[in-house]
Specification:
This protein is an alpha/beta fold. It folds into two domains: 7-225, TIM Barrel (Alpha-Beta Barrel), CATH 3.20.20; 231-296, no CATH class. The protein contains 15 helices and ten strands. It starts with 6 loop residues before the first helix and ends with a helix. The chain binds flavin mononucleotide.
């Protein structure tokens, strides 16, 4: 997730708690004809040592995909995820992310490159559609004809962004019609959520978690252990990840204000975890000193 699960977060999360089989990078894209140095830095092998990282590419068709893919593969990766789900209008209106779903011809261009690159294992992350929940129906047959490791589905349309109910009926149809193993993604926040999805779709290849893992970094580990952690243990972990992330950012960001702006995002999805009062105190702290006092009360 852009701005959240960058290399430092992934490394620290993996070392302190793990439980996650694979970490997908924020999407990598073309901007003004080139790749952003920030994105390239994020996937450098030396910043991802010991972490199972899958670079994710977003592209509006074969030409963009080819340029980004060739650059990413220079770092030695043989596993790539393709984003066909991003709802951000800046991407979708240029035919990237969910914006590619109404254009099966563009999906096919990308899939042709996938088929012609057998030494790399690809997966696709998709939504139901950009504006309509049946756009996937013209795309899935193309994906079915393409060698893919799996297809991860976030069963919403892009115009809903991250709100509204997930459409489990359409998801069930995709599970039935997909030639590839399917991964579920969307609104998974607790062990019960994971178990409910697992029980309803026994053939699933996995569950991908975004905001729920940011709010509860131990979630995947708790699942792997088969036991829920108590609140104190969960909060202690949240503090440890925070403290290490803060030290990392401090070593590269000289000004306190910028450091505060960067580290505060860590708490962005934690209102349900912390409660309104503690969350507000952290989000509203006007300087680093008050921020650290507010964080110190999390335990
Ligand atoms: C701020 C933000 C950034 C995201 N960035 C990406 C991204 O780069 N690639 C991607 O596949 N999904 C991205 N997502 C979507 C999540 O991966 C996920 O599909 C979505 O949040 C729904 O799952 P969740 O309910 O588990 O969070 C992002 C979501 C948010 C809120």
């Amino acid at each position: 997730m852009q701005g959240f699960t960058e290399d430092a977060y992934r490394r620290i999360h993996n070392r302190l708690v793990g439980g996650v089989e694979a970490y997908y990078t924020p999407f990598i894209r073309l901007e003004h004809g080139g790749l952003r140095s920030k994105d390239l830095r994020d996937i450098r092998p030396e910043f991802n040592e010991g972490v199972n990282v899958i670079p994710q590419i977003i592209a509006n068709g074969g030409n963009e995909f080819r340029v980004v893919l060739d650059t990413v593969l220079k770092d030695g990766y043989n596993r790539i995820d393709i984003n066909m789900g991003c709802p951000f209008t800046l991407q979708a209106r240029h035919g990237r992310g969910a914006g590619i779903l109404p254009h099966p011809d563009k999906v096919r261009e990308i899939c042709d490159i996938v088929s012609a690159t057998p030494d790399v294992r690809f997966s696709v992350k998709m939504r139901l559609g950009n504006e309509s929940a049946d756009e996937w129906k013209a795309v899935l047959p193309i994906l079915n004809d393409t060698p893919l490791v799996n297809v991860a589905v976030h069963p919403r349309i892009a115009t809903l962004q991250y709100k509204g109910d997930v459409d489990m009926e359409q998801f069930g149809e995709i599970v039935e019609q997909s030639a590839h193993p399917v991964i579920y993604n969307g609104d998974v926040c607790t062990l019960d959520d994971i178990r409910r999805i697992e029980a309803a779709y026994p053939s699933l290849a996995g569950i991908m978690i975004g905001r729920g893992l940011l709010a509860r970094p131990s979630l995947a580990r708790e699942y792997a252990e088969g036991v829920e952690w108590d609140e104190h243990k969960r909060l202690q972990l949240i503090r440890r990840i925070h403290d290490e992330l803060l030290e990392h950012h401090r070593s590269v960001i000289p000004s306190d204000d910028q450091l505060l702006g960067k580290i505060r995002t860590y708490w962005g999805y934690m209102e349900p975890t912390l409660g309104k009062k503690a969350y507000k105190k952290i989000m509203k702290a006007g300087n680093l000193k008050n921020y650290l006092l507010a964080v110190g009360e999390v335990n």
